[in-house]
Amino acid sequence: MSPLSSSENLALVRAAYAAHRDRDLDAFLGVFAPDAEWVHPDGMADYGLGGTQRGHAGIKEFLARVPQHVGGMVLDPQEFIVSGDRVVVLGLRDVTNKRGRTRTLKFLHVWTVRDGKAVRMEDVFDTVAFQRLLQE
């Protein structure tokens, strides 16, 4: 299979954010390769939201843990930088804690795409700010 163009990689990543926005888990998982890596900062491990998950099952398990700690989350990807098989996304996320307090926090996502599927997504963010919100 030939590698995708930068515009095709960008379209795939944009589709992931649209599926996340629409809460369409099947469409969201469809963006990822069956053995994809889903990486979050180790600083979130105390909440069960850190480390590397593998495959669709690992991603689903991670996503199922999020509502245990977060009342809601809306992603706002603002800038996309494409370089070969990488798509870097800078954005904001509105995170609502379990007591209803919402804060806007920055994120950086690094996607790696191969053969039409995301094989890795790494979420980089200020874990201290995130944890403070969860504890408010």
From TrEMBL:
It comes from the Bacteria. Gene3D superfamilies: 3.10.450.50. InterPro entries: NTF2-like_dom_sf, SnoaL-like. Residues 13-121 form the SnoaL-like domain. This is Nuclear transport factor 2 family protein. The lineage of its organism: Bacteria, Bacillati, Actinomycetota, Actinomycetes, Kitasatosporales.
